[in-house]
Amino acid sequence: MQLFKTDTQRATHHVVYDIYHFAEKLYLPTAYIVSEDQEGYLAHIKQKALKETIGSFELELTPTRDRLFDLIEQLQPKLLAEKFRPNKRSKPTLETLLADRDLAGPIYKYVHTRLAELLERANAEGLPVTWQVERTVLAKDFVIETGLEPLEPQLFFKREEAGVHYRLQLADRDGAWAIGSRDVVPITNHPAWLFVDYKLYRAPAINGNMVLPFQKKEEVHIPRKAVKTYFQKFILKVAAKSEIEAEGFEVQQHEELQACILEPVQDLFSGQWVLSVQMAYPGSTFTWSDPKDKRTSLEFDEGDEVRILQALRQREAEAVFVEKLKKQGLEVNAHQHFVLTEAHEDRYALLEWISANRATLEAEGFTLKLPSAEGKALYLHPPKVELIADQDNDWFDLKGQVTVGAHTFPFMKLAKYIRDGIRLFPLPDGQFFLIPQEWMARYKGLFQFGKKDKDQMRLAKSHFTLLQEIGISAGDEVAEERQLAVDFIPSNQLKASLRPYQLEGARWLVGLYESQLGGCLADDMGLGKTLQTITVLLHAKSQRAQRQQEAKTQGNTDTGAQLGLFAAPDDHDTLKPLQSLVILPASLVFNWEAEIKKFAPTLQVYRHTGQKRYKDIRLLSRFDVILTTYQTALRDVEVLKQMEFEYIVLDESQYIKNKDSKVFKAINQLEGLHKLSLSGTPIENSLSDLWAQMQFINPNLLGSFNFFKKEFIRPIERMHDEDKKNQLRRLVQPYLLRRTKEEVAKDLPPLSTQVFYCEMTAEQKRLYEREKSAARNYLLENYDADNPRFRFKVLQSLTKMRQIANHPKMAVEAYAKGSGKFEDVLEHWETIQKGGHKVLIFSSFVQHLELYRQEFEGHQQPYAWLTGSQSSKERERAIQSFMEKPEVQPFLISIKSGGTGLNLTAADYVFILDPWWNPTTEQQAIARAHRIGQDKHVIAIKFITKDTIEEKILRLQEKKSKLAEDIIGDVEKAKFSKGDIEYLFG
């Protein structure tokens, strides 16, 4: 026979809950870990069971176990003595406290309430309960069987001249029996649990101590003069829930249904509030589903005589009320309570329903019995809230009031309660208002991000979406400001045609500019974030000029002294400099400068790098765009923070992802009217990356970092909380624009080719200049145009210079320093890798590819490899691996062996690591990815090391120079004039 039920498979060990006798009328619980024998029965006690120990026995800490352990902990003798000791300096034992009559009552009540809950939960879950088990015995012999149905009391009264004879019997499914006929021990008084012949029974209708007088005798005689006192103290409350037989008393029958009482009660296990429905008759109350048709109760008449009231139920009248509840949208659950038709996670959902429908229920004749939640009387009335917001520059001032029944108070009073998830708000009369769940969700963001100021709140302009979500028009006004940019047309000073998605991006940036909010442009690599930014910088310059002209028109010009050498241009200048700062990695400075000069030549650009950079803000103020690196900005923070920039732009803004870094702290000291970050990977490792970037563009948009960590990082990264993800998305969405290459495919040409300029490292540059000068001097001094050996020496020198431009290690084996191009290519590769793209990496030198092969192998990155030395089978395996395996993202190919005959359409990026003299060879390499069967748009990037032979090769390609043809032709036929030598080595 199975002694207890379990919802898990048979385990090696179980937790057993034991009840032991501690003192007179006091039983306490403990828990043990008990082994299981081969037949599945409980065997021997291993040790006491605690939350901290059950894991080592492969037992899970379920919510039920967690609560039962809490109850057991609360009922430990030492803790009870500590809780109830009257003098905090004394340390009495629990036995000593129980001897004090004034203290014994509260102790019994405290213990009985918790012990009853433990027994109720264990019984409902089918958990094993033992009776005073010992370590030396088998636990299965001490398991208590629990009665399936509660015991019901039956009262018998016989009135005589000398008083009243009173009998109490208990009834189970087999009928009523005298208490003295069985071994009955009360475990708890109220609610009552009885230990009867080694079974546990609930007896909810009586107090447990009521059985004590009947353990030795069947009947109790109550003297006439004590009848009223005895009945009032022990009988009347129980009589209303019991079957009564009486002789010698006046009997009055009643058939009038006085009221249908609705009482919200809390389900012990789910914690949900449900509705108990009771039918009230004179002297008796029936649960609506009670099968009994009549009940006998007791009351005292005006002469203090006991009389019998007999209530006869009116089923038809009761059914009318039941039907009304069902029409209101309630249904009956398994325990015969009324609940909402739709299931709700909110345990207070029924109480909110009552608040909203209270007037209707009372109008239909129901009587509402107000509940208490967590010991607090609830005030159930439908609430109303009125809110208004006014914009004050970069802030909103929000205020409002709440009305609940007869109470009115400022909306701000709810701040702490909603922010901390506390549903019960105290009212002045001592009752508590239940804050609606919808308010908890709807207004939480306001109180999390707003700053309380007396009876109103200040909310940053960047949080306008929070106002939109609650229907406050001020939030819509900010959104309308941004919509003004819909008709934006790029400046005619922009020397580029924007693709549709780039125009959309520029309009988005202009919208942020117009509403004075920061943004993060997070487009995929290669989609033109720099060009879109240049577009908005030109717009900002024209707007600045317009404001300047308006100021002149209004007579605010200053016709003062002539502009000196170090004076910043004033309003009387034709066009005041934009004074914008772009902070970026050192490798991108030249590319930015080149693109600004190409696409916006009217913008005055200054490279704030190197030893001779300006340290005087009067000079810095003369430029439209200042380009500087993250490290330079850190070093010059004291200078730069003296300026108020029109724009601060961060390119590759993941450089500030570490909130504790010196760079992050320095950049956040700089003053800018508008802020913009550019990054293809705004979240590289953690959501903390996103916080750092948002903190820069719109300070406190996501709160403090500790708040962000608690509210978003932990719930999202650890628990994958979808609600938190959606909340974060709503906060960030207005300020983050990300388009992938796939999303804007219709706006892209099938092939886009870009040139990326790389800066050499200091050591690389010294080595290159030394080699170039030595070769130039030697070749000019030993010039012999017709000598094949001379021509070979020219080509040999050119090759060495190309190698150093790629990575000096290719030309100087002992070289141990870095290469600018090598680092730039790896940065581009990491961005592509994170985006899940595949890339073909071409080089003229197998030796160059080897450097990247070593890098990939060092990071355990799968790759494919193809050079001219491979067999046809090796080539096939490499191609198949790249085309079919998702994890193989890079394909390293020597440009000559990969120039023709390959179909590599799995790739959508192509890297040309070094330029070849004949552009046709590069075009053939790119065509390996961009060919029939390719369903993606291909972006090819040519990496050119600045101020090297590679720039000259690029120019020769563009001019289709005969010199390039000579160089790639037969060395015997190559011709080099002195002018060619000076050009190539100049």
UniProtKB/TrEMBL annotation:
Residue runs in coiled coils: none
GO-annotated molecular function: ATP binding; helicase activity; hydrolase activity
Domain Helicase ATP-binding: start-end pairs: 510-700
Keyword ATP-binding among record annotations: yes
Keywords, alphabetical: ATP-binding, Helicase, Hydrolase, Nucleotide-binding
Superkingdom field: Bacteria
InterPro entries cross-referenced by the UniProt entry: Helicase_ATP-bd, Helicase_C-like, P-loop_NTPase, SNF2-like_sf, SNF2/RAD54-like_C, SNF2_N
Limits of the Helicase C-terminal domain: 824-982
Presence of keyword Membrane: no
Listed name of the protein: Helicase SNF2
